[in-house]
Amino acid sequence: MIRLVQTPARWKTASLGDVCRIQGGVPAPQDEMAFENGEIPFVRMKDVGRHHLTNNLHETDQRLNKAYFESAGFEVTPRGSVLMPRSGSVGLNHRAILTVDAVIVSHLCALIPISREISVDFLYRFLSRVDMRKLTKKTTGLDSIAFSDLRLVAVPLPPLSDQERIAKVLDRAEALRETRNLALARLDSLLQSVFLQMFGDPTTNSKKWTRKTMGEIGEVITGNTPPRSNGSLYGTAIEWIKSDNLNTPNHYLTQAEEGLSAKGKRLARIAPQGSVLVTC
Question: Residues near 194 by Cβ (< 8 Å), separated by ≥ 6?
Answer without folding.
Answer: none
